[in-house]
Input
Amino acid sequence: MSLTRVLPLPTGLPWRTAATTPAQTRAVAAESRRDGSLVRINGLEKIYATKDGQTIHALKDVNLDIGETEFISIVGPSGCGKTTLLKILAGILSRSTGEVTIHGQALSGPSREIGVVFQAPVLLPWRTVLQNVLVPVEVQKRDRTRFEARARDLLAMAGLAGFENKYPNELSGGMQQRVGICRALVHNPSFLLMDEPFGALDAMTRETMNEELQRIWTESRKTVLLVTHSIPEAVYLADRVVVMTPRPGRIVDVIPVDLPRPRTLAMHNTPEFGRFVARIRAHFNSAGTLDT
Ligand SMILES: Nc1ncnc2c1ncn2[C@@H]1O[C@H](COP(=O)(O)OP(=O)(O)OP(=O)(O)O)[C@@H](O)[C@H]1O
Ligand SMILES: [Mg+2]
Output
C-alpha cells in the first residue's frame, strides 16, 4: 500500500498552483535570485528515510538567494518542508542534493554566522535571563566577559532592561520569546533563522512582537529568514515573501513587498497591504491551510 493511502498527506489538499504557467515559473525564478547575496540555495532537495523503510520527499528543487540585510518570510502549508529548510540552513540537518553557500562558502555544519530562534524559546529554567542569552557564547567557547555587555545591550534593546537576573518562569510568554531572540543574536550572527517564533502568542502580543522584531532588525541589520503561518505577519515584516507548495516543498511564488518602512500596524488596513495578502492567500485553498 502506498504511503499516501496510509497517511493524510497535505498533497491531497486542493492547491491552486496546478495552473502555474511557464511565464509564472520564469517570474518566480527571476524573483528568487539576487545579486550580491549572503546566502545562495541551489537545487536543494531533501528526502527523509523513515524508520519503517519508506522515503518522504520533503523538499524539491528549492532555489533562493537571500541578500545582505534582507528580511524574507516563508509561508506554506503544514508539512511542506519549512522547518526542514531552516534546519538545513542552520547546518543541523544534511541535505540530499543541492548546495547552500553563505558568503560564498559551502555550508557544512553549524556556523557562527547563524542564529536560530525556535517556535518555543526553550530557555533553561535554572538559568537567569542573562545566563540564558549567553548560552551560545559558552557553547562556542568564546569570551564570556566580552559578550556579557552585548547581551545586556540586546536585552535593553528588546525592552528587557532590569530583567537580566530574573528567571524564565518570572517572565511572560512574549518576554521569554524576546529572550530567545536575544540569545540568537548574542554572538552577532549575520543570518537569523526564525521558525514560527510567535506561533504560541496571543494576537495582541504577537503584533507587539512583530513591531519589536522590525525594530531589532532595523537596528541590527541582520539577514532574516522567518517561517510563519500568518500571512499578515509575513507581509508586515518582509522584503520578499516566499510561498511554498505542499510536499514535496517547492517555491511557487516570490513576492517583493515594497511597502515603505518603517511599517506600522495601521498599514494592515490599507488596500496595498490587502493586495499582498490576497496574492498570497490565492495560493491556498478555501479550507485554509494558513492562519489569517
Ligand atoms: N526526521 C524526519 N524523518 C522523516 N520525515 C520527516 C522528518 N522530519 C520531517 N519529516 C517530514 O518531512 C515533511 C516536512 O516536514 P517539516 O517539519 O519540514 O514541515 P513544516 O513545513 O515545517 O510543517 P509545519 O508547518 O507543520 O511545521 C513532513 O511530511 C514530515 O513528516
Ligand atoms: Mg515546521
